[in-house]
Write a structure and sequence with these properties.
- Helix 1 packs antiparallel against helix 3.
- It is globular and about 45 Å long.
- A three-stranded antiparallel β-sheet has the order 1-2-3, with no helix packed on it.
- The chain is α+β, with helices and mostly antiparallel strands.
- It contains six helices and three strands; from the N terminus they run αααααβββα.
Length: about 140
C-alpha cells in the first residue's frame, strides 16, 4: 500500500517528513490535520507515553505545518472515513476505513481498509494485491 515511502513505521513521520506523502494523499492537508488530531487523541489516552513526545519533538522542528497543527490542540481520533490515495503503481485508490478497538488490547486499534463499491477503479485493490510478494509460511 505504501510503496513509494521511505519508511512506514509511523504515520505522522510519513505524512509530515516524507515527500511522497503530498503526492500519495489526494487531500494531504486533511490527512495532516487528521493525523495530528489522532496523535493528540493518543496523548489524552496515554499521557505518560514518551513515544508521542519523541515523535512530536522529532517532527515539530522539521515541519512548520505539523507545529502549527499541533499548537491548535485539536483532539480527533480516527474512526472511519472514505479516502483517496494516488498509488505510484496502481493509480487512484478509493477506500473506506474503519478503526476497530481490539478487545484484548484496549490500547491498540486495527485499521481495516476496503474498496468502495462505487469507486471509479474497483480493480485497483486487486491489482495492488497482485503486486504484493507472496511469502511462504514455515
Amino acid at each position: 500500500m505504501y510503496s513509494g515511502f521511505g519508511d512506514t513505521d509511523n504515520l505522522a513521520r510519513m505524512v509530515f517528513l516524507d515527500p511522497a506523502a503530498r503526492d500519495f494523499y489526494a487531500d494531504w492537508q486533511h490527512v495532516a490535520t487528521q493525523v495530528v488530531g489522532n496523535l493528540r487523541s493518543g496523548l489524552t489516552r496515554f499521557p505518560n507515553d514518551d513515544r508521542v513526545a519523541e515523535v512530536v519533538d522529532e517532527i515539530s522542528p522539521r515541519s512548520t505545518v505539523f507545529a502549527e497543527l499541533w499548537a491548535t490542540h485539536d483532539v480527533r481520533p480516527r474512526t472511519s472515513e472514505d479516502k483517496v490515495f494516488h498509488h505510484p503503481r496502481v493509480g487512484e485508490l478509493h477506500l473506506h476505513f474503519e478503526a476497530l478497538e481490539v478487545a484484548d488490547a484496549p490500547d491498540q486499534r486495527l485499521f481495516v481498509y476496503c474498496a468502495l463499491e462505487n469507486g471509479p477503479i474497483p480493480d485497483a485493490v486487486a491489482l495492488l494485491e497482485s503486486l504484493t510478494p507472496v511469502t511462504a509460511s514455515a
